[in-house]
Amino acid sequence: MPPKPFEELYAKLPPVAGATPDTLLPPGGPRETGHFNVFNVADLMLGYRDRPPMAFDRRAFYKISLIRGRSRVEYADQAVEVGERGLWFASHRVPYRWLPHDLAQTGYFCVFTDEFLRPAQGGVALDELPVFRAGGCPVLHVSEADYEAIEHIFKKMQQEIASGYAHKYDLLHAYLVELVHIGQKLQPAPAQALARTAATRLTAQFADLLERQFPLETPQHRLRLRTARAYADGLAVHVNHLNRVLKETTGRTTTALLAGRVAQEARLLLKQTGWSVSEIADSLGFADVAHFCHFFKRQTGLAPGDFRQAAIV
């Protein structure tokens, strides 16, 4: 029997049940500052065998998890095996799930909205931080010493959220910022801050504009920007300049980068939703199903239906 996702477990628990932003903050919290809560992984393993698997999570909050135990983290179309200890940063912009390989799982996780952390970050949006940036490394393997240090922060979060201290949410802000900085320090060297040349700035702006088009939440959601010229116009540069810069910094043309991201979203929708191939083609901006099928097979080597069947197996 395949392992059951972690997201199904905490979806059943108050105050996260229903997964709307208003349910994420414990009763009595300052809602004008956003929403936050913290949980113990061991509590969620109770009754684990009796719960059915669920789809990848796309709910509108962020999550930081400290995991001890053999498991697998799946995000977008990637998968990372956690051999013993891991620190995982999840963004609502990238669908994800956590699949424990056995019941011997412990650790902690906190869920929060952008508004909760933004004041402590001086107004910086979470998706601009390296640990939450699309295309980054959201799952970090940690040493025993690092695990103990991070565990101590989570324990302080649990103690504080249950306290009656009038300024406890200020403290929780501080603990959350500390977790973010620990994660950023543990990032692989290439993922740390790069020199901000004009070329790297434009490349980062393009990547941000591209990722803001996703995920597609419903069959009625249409891809807004579909061509290299549309992205160049959105960035106020000439399309030839954009193509030259991206070729220099990534080794790929604008069109190739767009095709790769569209193909990735197509794979996710085929794997994670029940949308028809026609609905997926329409949402991704293809004129008809035949054009989409030709594009998908050229990108992946499989027809959409064959890919979906293989993903189910």
Strand residue content = 5-15%
Tell me the name of the CATH class of the largest domain: Mainly Beta
CATH superfamily membership of the largest domain: Regulatory protein AraC
* Radius of gyration, whole Å: 21 Å
Q: Assign the structural class, choosing from mainly alpha, mainly beta, alpha/beta, alpha+beta, or little secondary structure.
A: alpha+beta
**Overall spatial form:** globular
The count of strands amounts to 8
How would you state the average pLDDT, rounded?
Answer: 80
Characterize the main sheet. 5 strands, antiparallel
CATH architecture of the largest domain: Sandwich
Number of helices: 12
Separation of termini? 12 Å
As laid out across the biggest beta sheet, the strand order is 1-7-2-5-8
The number of domains is 2
CATH topology of the largest domain: Jelly Rolls
**What percentage of residues falls in helices of 4 or more residues?**
40-55%
Outline the secondary-structure elements.
Elements: H1 6-11, E1 36-40, H2 41-44, E2 62-68, E3 71-75, E4 78-82, E5 85-90, E6 96-100, E7 106-112, H3 114-117, E8 139-141, H4 144-161, H5 168-186, H6 198-211, H7 228-234, H8 239-250, H9 254-272, H10 277-283, H11 289-300, H12 304-312
Antiparallel strand pairs: 1-7, 2-5, 2-7, 3-4, 3-6, 5-8
Walk me through what this model shows.
The chain starts with 5 loop residues before the first helix and ends with a helix. With 313 residues, the chain is of the alpha+beta class. The protein folds into two domains: 6-191, Jelly Rolls (Sandwich); 198-312, Arc Repressor Mutant, subunit A, CATH 1.10.10. The model is unreliable at 1-25, 52-58 and 191-195 (pLDDT under 50). The longest helix is centred in the middle third of the chain and has 19 residues, at 168-186. It is 42% helix and 14% strand. Strands 1-7-2-5-8 form a five-stranded antiparallel β-sheet. Strands 4-3-6 form a three-stranded antiparallel β-sheet, with no helix packed on it. It has helices spanning 6-11, 41-44, 114-117, 144-161, 168-186, 198-211, 228-234, 239-250, 254-272, 277-283, 289-300, 304-312, and strands at residues 36-40, 62-68, 71-75, 78-82, 85-90, 96-100, 106-112, 139-141.
